[in-house]
Amino acid sequence: MHSVExxxxxxTERAVREAWERLAxxxxxxxAAHRHPTNRPHxxxxxxxxxxxxxxxxxYEALEAALPLxxxxxxxxxxxxxxxxxxxxxxxxxxxxxxxxxxxRTLREAPGSGRPNPLHDPGRWVPHLTLGRGGDHTRAVNEAxxxxxxxxxxxxxxxxxxxxxxxxxxxxxxxxxx
Length: 178
Hints:
The chain is an alpha+beta fold.
């Protein structure tokens, strides 16, 4: 499985990593415990079984034209399921939603890409940055999140400045876009 992911600017990445550390210090599940070298804050736009060179080229063009984009982080969101997830909510603007639809459509229409994950369908997609997986996050509160000076806890602005693909089979990443 290949994911197409946006990467935040360095200040936003530091803030997310700080939130990971705060959760870990509080004894809560945190992505800080995931030590694989590819682990970094990211926003998953969509996934595909295969990314052929022609598809990568189309994605690169779309990402290069769209980035950088603003990112607005705003509070916690929890996902229930067999493995609960705690995340920092991303409040999408029109430009991010357009880019997401473009990436989704590109992967859906690309020969050999396979069936896209329905959770990334533009009608269902919940943009977020994962903070922790598994365990009980009911104690986690917005105060665990850094914020901008004078802003409420968990409210932060930044930019999406890069993109990559992640191959879950080989556990490797490749740059995709600027």
